[in-house]
Write a structure and sequence with these properties.
Its main location: membrane. Keywords: Cell membrane, Disulfide bond, Glycoprotein, Membrane, Receptor, Repeat, Signal, Transmembrane, Transmembrane helix. This is Jg4548 protein. It is a single chain. The protein is α+β, with helices and mostly antiparallel strands. Among the domains are: about 50 residues, no CATH class; about 100 residues, Immunoglobulin-like; about 35 residues, ligand-binding face of the semaphorins, domain 2 (2-Layer Sandwich); about 90 residues, Immunoglobulins (Immunoglobulin-like, Sandwich), CATH 2.60.40.10; about 80 residues, Immunoglobulin-like (Sandwich); about 100 residues, Immunoglobulin-like (Sandwich), CATH 2.60.40; about 90 residues, Immunoglobulin-like (Sandwich); about 60 residues. Strands 4, 5, 7, 8, 9, 10, 12, 13 and 14 form a 9-stranded mixed sheet that branches. Strands 18-20-23-22-21-24-25-19 form an 8-stranded mixed sheet. Strand 8 and strand 9 form a beta hairpin. The N and C termini lie far apart (about 120 Å).
């Protein structure tokens, strides 16, 4: 350490980590005291080794503190004050020296003399002032001795100079300042000052006194409901020094307002709660604050008002919420706490004004109509006359733009400049106010607006513009980006890429090249513009070509060329000879191509010389002469052929004309737009209840099974035995041995296997966790057995040859009921209804079930049937309604029928219209009613399928139709209670009980089944009946009849017409089934759980062929469960399925099965029409299936805890659906039948031995025998 070291204070020096010492008189820091501190007082450093008398900073000469023990000395600005501080001094020579106090105020240094008395330095008085407008400043302070040696100031003792006036501009704040400043309110100068500056002591208020003149500057809100409870915030000055000053002194319009202690801000703010006026009448008045004897009053008045809600807009929104609801009314901004609710669901307030409020709806757990309620503090207001409806969330079905991809997949495409039209198809878009599309790039969303084209189902969105800096786009490999939609708070349409697997494809901007010449001359009908990547993401509708101010109609767009038809010269403005050609792509991308001239290019015609022109003309003349010679020679040769063909042509003309007419009709049907049949579903979907649904699948064709019978006295006697047998069934070892034993017996038939599986599932309905465990064990054994045998693994689960396979069907039946009701049931029902409606639009033969509109070749009418659509007015009598016990309109209903319909068919269509919203089993049967034609005021005629007017031709009788009775269009018909005609009575007497005629529709509840032969329908007297098509006994026909026969295959085009009409409904059903997230419903846990189980089994058995696992999954769910429901919608809905509809559903079901197959079917001209009909669609459906299986595999595995929770909930919901004792009793019958073999199995199995299962079964036998004898 050298002399002159920058350590200028004793404290710093002796506190150093170096061995430094401080020479007090020399005022220096040194390491060599012998040399530099001779005869001086020495303070040694803390790092110095060895003994020392004075060591450390405690021995340094220092300023210790002020007289009050702080390091801050407060001095009002403009006041003259003497400063004193305590010091610690060593050495007599310091005491005897001269002291000076030094102050540095805003850079101005002031010195005053000081005296040391004892341990205190007294500075002479000095006036402290500063020029800054700050409320206070800090001035540094030092005590100097020996001319230039400052005492150490380790605590940074300083001077704080302040101005009371700058710290408070009103009395209240002034008196609330900290006491250390000594500020008070000088009434004479109306300023905040210290007392010395005020002058007259009587006009200076100290902090213990009350400020006069409280002032209220503002308050809010200025309106409140007359119900009270409003928190009013009052801002002002002099509003009390503490809460006690104003606690009982605040009134609003004369009503006491209770201050809230926690929200009170001294002198400045009061928040208080006011009660209502106690009466529902308007009232207003000022806000008054009393502080001691002083009173402050607001200039504006507070008003108690009655808020009213008049209307809301919109009146519906998505179930997920997020709708901005605009509420109009009066005084909607009244109160301090305004809340809105839809029933009990909060609607977050976004803004309020006098006549309008806006809130954002929250998520609803169900679709419903809700009432708007608004809370204004203590008051609640309700809008009764209008409701807000939570409707289904929007569903995005397809998103596409630009030309189709090679794979025909529908994907959105765009360019960095944005503005490309994206077509969005789906449902329920009308519920969204401001839909947007967004695309993510570099973790940043790019957003663009959408607008509705169709109210509910069609949006057009602009592709967002994306920053192109750093983008290196390959036109052959577009950049795949995540995209989705902002539709209020609907989550299901966000990030569609992760849900559908389809990305937003970003292609480079198209490049349009300029014309080669400065001015392009318009020579032909079209204008061609060259470029690059023109159609990667764009179509003709995305591009506009402007020629001047007119448009050039774009006719084609290819990869490197655009063609458009320019406007005519007359369409251009006068004086514009060479308009600019500009290409606009989307909304932001513009190219200036050049200028276009409609004038002929100078010298163009002169370039063609006369010799060339003459040569061209001569060539054309020679070609014409050669053609004329050839034509004459051909004419001579063909004359002979014409003569030979003339006779044949005349014979075929009639047939050809008929074929052409039929083909033209079929073509027109194919081009007809699909009828929107979804509007017919007005009464809801008639789902069967869980019990009926399960019974139809578990025990088909058994209406009153034992498990539905609760009054069984004989089972009460067997209760103890059945209970013990039930305990055995709940023992996994016993149940598995029981099933294996039955299946190993060769007399255990296929019907028995199905029955036992169904009974076991009924028994285990309340124990679905145990049931699932058993099912997995049985399936694992079945797979093991399949792998050990020589059969191909793909055959697993294809047929119901084991108890496990039928249990698997029942397992899915139980667990997918909720999914059916919430999601998949709707498209299945719409397909059924649309199919039935389409079939009924054309003639249907009531005898053969053949129809004009069909998907099945077997049920297609192959003749030309003349018919006329009619609309009749139908009513039903009050007596009939009373007898049936069902509600139905007595007013006339317009029903569409055909003049070729039989009377039974007309009755069926009338009942469909009258009881549209009634389940089929609850409406009257057509056989219980007669159809009455009312021809005038008194004229009434009962119409029958058969009566005395029926037309007879030999042994054939033709069923009566509306045309037979000459019923005109718009006729009035009525359904009345069944009557018996004189003809029918006599006919019954004549034929007695030998009448064997019946129609295909067997009754109200049974489903029709096709006849073995149409010739069976005849009376005992030998009559044969026909409706539209008369079927002959044999194939022998008259020779001349063949010329009049129609080529029946011509009518197969009607299959295509029907298929096209129903295509949307088939697609919707398949897409719903083969989608992991559709219609707002998540994939059922049961599907994911079972598919994961099959994947695990494949891994365990080292199956590497993906087609095997694909086939297992298809056999387990689509072919085992869904095909059954598609063929039999009456298993899910309370509907009637006709033979014709049944045949159409069979075609759909076959298509569904083909879609799940991994093999490719080779089709030819001899293939069944049902295969050819959907040949082009099946590859698309196969892709859906493969993607569905892949998506499920990629989903997170389901934990056993989540699966068990779901299974437990299913068990709880359906515990009491079936009589399990009846199921146990029937299972016990199998145990008795195969008792000997079962007992041997139980006695040989080691696990059974440990649990003494054979003994327990013997106990059951004993109890059952005893109970039976009792």
């Amino acid at each position: 350490m050298q002399l002159g070291n920058p350590m200028g204070s004793c404290t710093q020096c002796v506190s150093s980590s170096f061995p430094c010492d401080w020479c007090v008189d020399g005022h220096r820091c040194t390491h060599d005291t012998a040399e530099n501190c001779r005869n001086d007082i020495l303070v040694t450093g803390v790092s110095r080794i060895g003994p020392s008398y004075r060591s450390g900073p405690g021995f340094c000469p220092t300023i210790n503190s002020t007289s009050d023990g702080t390091n801050e000395i407060l001095v009002p600005s403009g006041v003259k004050k003497a400063i004193k501080v305590k010091v610690h001094i060593i050495g007599q020579f310091i005491v005897q020296t001269r002291f000076v106090c030094q102050f540095n105020i805003e850079g101005r240094v002031t010195h005053v003399n000081a005296q040391l008395l004892a341990d205190t330095i007294y500075c002479e008085a000095v006036e402290f002032t500063y020029t800054s407008r700050a409320p206070n400043i800090t001035a540094s302070f030092a005590v100097i001795w020996g001319g230039s040696k400052p005492l150490d100031n380790p605590d940074n003792t300083h001077i704080l100079i302040y101005r009371c006036n700058d710290m408070a501009d009103n009395c209240g704040i002034c008196l609330a300042l900290p006491e250390k400043f000594g500020c008070g309110w000088c009434q004479g100068s109306d300023r905040c000052e210290v007392q010395e500056q005020c002058g007259v002591p009587s006009v200076w208020l100290n902090r213990t006194q009350t400020c006069p003149n409280p002032e209220i500057h503002s308050f809010k809100p200025q309106l409140g409901p007359w119900d009270g409870g409003t928190n009013i915030t009052i801002e002002g000055i002099n509003l009390g020094r503490n809460i006690s000053d104003i606690y009982n002194g605040v009134t609003i319009a004369g009503i006491k307002c209770q201050p809230i202690i926690e929200l009170y801000v001294k002198t400045r703010r009061i928040v208080c709660t006011v009660d209502g006026p106690g009466e529902e009448v308007p009232r207003d008045g000022p806000v008054v604050v009393r502080v001691a004897d002083y009173r402050g009053e607001s200039k504006h008045h507070y008003a108690f008002v009655n808020p009213k809600i008049n209307s809301i807009q919109p009146k519906y929104g998505p179930q997920s919420g997020g709708t901005k609801l605009r509420i109009t009314g009066e005084y909607l901004n009244a109160g301090s706490n305004i809340q809105a609710f839809i029933d009990d669901l909060p609607c977050a307030i976004l803004s309020v004004s006098h006549e309008e409020a806006v809130c954002r709806t929250s998520h609803s757990y169900q679709l419903k109509m809700g009432t708007l309620r608004m809370r204004f503090d203590n008051g609640m207001r309700t809008l009764e006359r209008e409701k807000f409806e939570y409707i289904e969330d929007p569903v995005v079905v397809s998103v596409e733009s630009g030309p189709p991809l090679a794979s025909q997949r529908k994907q959105p495409k765009g360019i960095p400049s944005g503005g490309i039209n994206i077509k969005v198809m789906g449902r329920n878009f009308h519920s969204i106010q401001f839909p947007q599309i967004y695309v993510y790039h570099d973790n940043r969303p790019y957003i663009a607006p959408c607008h509705r084209v169709d109210f509910q189902t069609h949006l057009i969105c602009e592709s967002p513009g994306i920053e192109s800096a750093g983008l290196n786009l390959d036109p052959d490999r577009p950049l795949e980006l995540e995209y989705g939609f902002n539709m209020d708070d609907v989550q299901s349409v966000q990030n569609l890429t992760s849900k559908t697997g389809d990305a937003f494809l970003l292609y480079p901007d198209p490049i349009y090249e300029k014309f080669d010449e400065d001015v392009k001359y318009y020579k032909s009908e079209y204008l061609t513009i060259n470029g690059q990547n023109l159609d990667r993401a764009c179509t003709e509708t995305d591009v506009e070509v402007h020629i001047g101010e007119s448009l050039c109609n774009v006719t084609s767009l290819a990869r490197h060329q655009l063609t458009c038809r320019p406007p005519s010269r007359d369409e251009l403005p006068d004086g514009v000879d060479t308009p600019d050609v500009v290409v606009k792509v989307g909304r932001a991308l513009t190219y200036k191509i050049g200028k276009l001239s409609y004038s002929s290019q100078a010298g163009l015609q002169a370039a063609i010389g006369k010799p060339v022109l003459f040569g061209v003309i001569a060539s054309i003349v020679i070609l014409i002469l050669v053609f004329v010679v050839f034509l004459v020679m051909y004419r001579r040769k063909s004359t002979e052929n014409i003569r030979v063909l003339k006779n044949m042509q005349e014979q075929m003309d009639i047939l050809e004309l008929r074929v052409a007419a039929e083909c033209k009709e079929a073509f027109a049907e194919l081009q007809t737009e699909m009828t929107d049949l979804t509007g017919d579903v007005t009464g809801g979907i008639p789902f069967l209840d869980y019990r009926t649904y399960a019974m139809k699948i578990l025990f088909p064709n058994i209406d009153d099974h034992a498990v539905l019978q609760w009054e069984r006295p004989e089972l009460i006697r067997k209760d103890k035995g059945l209970r013990m047998f039930g305990q055995l069934i709940m023992n996994k070892t016993f149940l598995l041995l029981f099933i294996r034993t039955l299946e190993s017996n060769r007399y255990f038939s296929m019907r028995d296997r199905v029955n036992v599986a169904s009974l076991i599932m009924v028994t285990l309905q309340s124990k679905m966790e145990y049931c699932t465990d058993v099912l997995k064990t049985l399936l694992a054994e079945l797979i093991e057995k399949c792998m050990e045998s020589k059969s191909h693994p793909k055959l697993l689960l294809r047929r119901t040859e084991s108890v496990a396979e039928k249990m698997l069907s029942a397992w899915f039946t139980f667990l997918l009921y909720k999914f059916l009701r919430e999601c998949a049931g709707e498209p299945l029902y719409l397909l059924f209804r649309s199919m039935k409606g389409q079939v009924d639009k054309g003639p249907v033969d009531v005898i053969t079930s053949e129809a004009r509109y069909s998907l099945s070749e077997e049920k297609l009418i192959r003749q030309s049937i003349d018919f006329k659509p009619m609309t009749v007015s139908v009513s039903i009598s009050q007596q009939t309604i009373f007898v049936s016990g069902l509600e139905a309109t007595t007013e006339n209903v317009q029903v569409k029928v055909l003049d070729c319909d039989t009377i039974s068919q007309v009755k069926e269509k009338c009942l469909d219209a009258l009881y549209r919203a009634t389940p089929y089993s609850q409406r009257p049967s057509r056989d219980e009613l007669d159809l009455e034609w009312r021809t005038g005021a008194c004229g009434r005629l009962i119409l029958y399928d058969e009566d005395s007017t029926t037309k007879c031709e030999g042994e054939w009788r033709k069923l009566n139709t509306l045309n037979h009775y000459r019923v005109p269009d718009s006729a009035c018909l009525s359904l009345v209670a069944k009557q018996s005609s004189v003809y029918n009575l006599s006919n019954m007497e004549k034929n007695d009980k030998s009448h064997t005629y019946e129609t295909l529709n067997r009754g109200k509840y049974g489903s029709a089944s096709p006849p073995a032969s149409p010739l069976k329908y005849e009376h005992g007297g030998g009559f044969k009946y026909w409706h539209l098509v008369r079927h002959h006994d044999g194939d022998a026909h008259k020779e001349g009849e063949r010329g009049n026969k129609m080529v029946s295959e011509i009518y197969l085009t009607r299959l295509l017409a029907t298929k096209g009409t129903l295509q949307k409904f088939v697609d919707d059903l398949f897409e719903t089934i083969f989608s992991t997230a559709h219609r707002g419903s998540a994939l059922p846990l049961a599907i994911k759980y079972m598919f994961d189980f099959l994947d695990d089994q494949a891994l365990q058995h080292a199956i590497s062929d993906p087609e095997v696992v694909h086939t297992w999954k298809s056999n387990s769910l689509p072919l085992r469960f869904w095909v059954n429901l598609i063929k039999n919608p009456n298993f899910v809905f309370d509907v009637h399925k006709s033979n014709t509809v049944d045949s159409c559903l069979s075609v759909i079901a076959q298509t569904f099965m083909d879609s799940c197959s991994t093999s490719d079917h080779i089709l030819g001209k001899d293939s069944p029409s049902s295969k050819l009909l959907y040949a082009k669609d099946i590859p698309v459906y196969k892709e859906w299936v493969e993607r569905y299986y892949a998506d499920i595999k990629l989903m997170p595995a389901i934990s056993d805890q989540d699966m068990n929770a779901m299974l437990a909930e299913e068990s709880r919901l359906h515990t009491k659906e079936f009589n399990t004792n009846c199921a146990l009793n029937e299972l016990y019958a199998y145990a008795v039948k195969y008792n000997e073999q079962l007992m041997v199995t139980l006695e040989e199995d080691e696990f059974s031995q440990k649990q003494r299962l054979a003994f327990r079964l013997e106990q059951v036998h004993s109890l059952m025998a005893h109970d039976y004898n009792v």
